[in-house]
Design goal:
5 helices, globular, 23% strand, 206 residues, alpha/beta, 8-stranded mixed beta sheet
Length: 206
């Protein structure tokens, strides 16, 4: 079986970047939506959107389960699939996929074989580099490990790419100059203010 490739579009990268930028000292997480070029595993995956879940979480809570269900329904409505998971940790130097992240990612993988998880790299966050560390499941187990590769993620030859090279720099600029992260809301925010459109987040897009 061929190894899938993953391409992240600006909209997806901006949203996960804004989520982490809005809550820099809290763990944040969300889902990645996209499409696959073939109906069977191994096809190219395009990650075209991100749906932010929570910024108050330590376990797979009922609220997270509800958010997962609503985001999955939304993906179906717009013709996309839930293809992955992302998280940022509280500490800048922490890049491990949390146990709850493994559980969520495994739930996704049960329905999408080529599911991927990304941990936001706090030390690269805000630089011109893609601040994402990819994780994939080990065989059919529920254990996830950094994706082995002969090329670093988001460098030439890697199976992980951005659809345009300047996306990380532009995301940092939009936060620094336009403060678009403050127009961004996740499911936690929606529970406190139902007018926040956490599924689409159109207000934060340039």
């Amino acid at each position: 079986m061929s190894t899938p490739t993953y391409t992240i579009t600006p909209e997806a990268y901006y949203k996960l970047f804004f989520h982490a930028a809005k809550h820099p000292h809290k763990p944040v997480n969300g889902l990645l939506l996209g499409t696959q070029s073939s109906p069977t595993p191994g096809g190219a995956v395009v990650i075209s959107d991100a749906v932010p879940l929570l910024h108050h979480w330590t376990s797979l809570s009922p609220m997270m389960e509800i958010g997962l269900d609503l985001a999955t329904q939304y993906a179906d409505e717009v013709g996309l699939r839930v293809v992955g998971y992302y998280q940022a940790c509280e500490r800048v130097d922490e890049t491990a996929l949390a146990p709850v992240g493994e559980k969520v990612a495994s739930k996704i993988k049960a329905k999408f074989a080529d599911a991927v998880a990304f941990v936001i790299d706090g030390e690269k966050f805000g630089s011109g580099e893609a601040a994402l560390l990819p994780y994939t499941a080990i065989s059919t187990s529920t254990s996830w490990r950094p994706t082995p590769s002969s090329h670093a993620a988001f460098t030439p030859g890697s199976e992980f790419q951005l659809s345009a090279p300047g996306i990380p720099e532009e995301a940092a600029r939009l936060v620094r100059e336009q403060h678009l992260q403050h127009a961004f809301g996740d499911f936690d925010d929606h529970l406190e203010d139902v007018t926040i459109d956490w599924l689409r987040n159109r207000a934060c897009l340039p």
